[in-house]
């Protein structure tokens, strides 16, 4: 019951799987591998068990509020809270550099909007010195955005969640209006870029809120590198195992005083809004 708890969303393969593996080796606590597809999740668990590791599994679809509530109830029943939460679940259609409104909205549901539901349902379970790690991207740097209004707005010290929502809505409206509007916002893969810029901005806003509340929770985002995964059609600079390096640093090694930062794949901090 008093065991520490680490949770990694979308972790049946890729970087998420490697983060779970690293936590199983190094973390003194229960490590939850989660996936929306139970069969794939169980297969991933089996792979780790074959290495002598003992991860736990729970089905979780981050885009489904009921699924998140069921998971929260399970954690509340079996544990005293959450100590590490890695928001890793994410999608990208690498074959579609320009996507329809419908595809863009689906991507936002997983990559960004789910974080708002997670904050509502899972954040109340965070223990006082918990660590939240949001998996971002170099495409999550503010400089990927081409609209001056949003460059100025998102860089504000007093940025609000509502303004981030307006930013995402503005992009989705551009996607609805057609290719030229889509491209003018953030270029190719604009949906993914906007989702990760929004995730990064949300990281800083949420850290500010926790600090205002006097809680010692740390919230950071990280660019894990350009990783060779199914999502990138096997293209990339690093293996998924190497991609887990910086997220594991934030989960296990970084000082708790490291808060509200954007961390590069080599574990150094970068200025998000340069």
From TrEMBL:
It comes from Papilio xuthus (Asian swallowtail butterfly). The gene is LOC106118128. Belongs to the short-chain dehydrogenases/reductases (SDR) family. This is Carbonyl reductase [NADPH] 1. The keyword Oxidoreductase applies. It comes from the Eukaryota. Keywords: NADP, Oxidoreductase. Signal peptide: none annotated. The keyword NADP applies. InterPro entries: NAD(P)-bd_dom_sf, SDR_fam. GO terms for molecular function: carbonyl reductase (NADPH) activity.
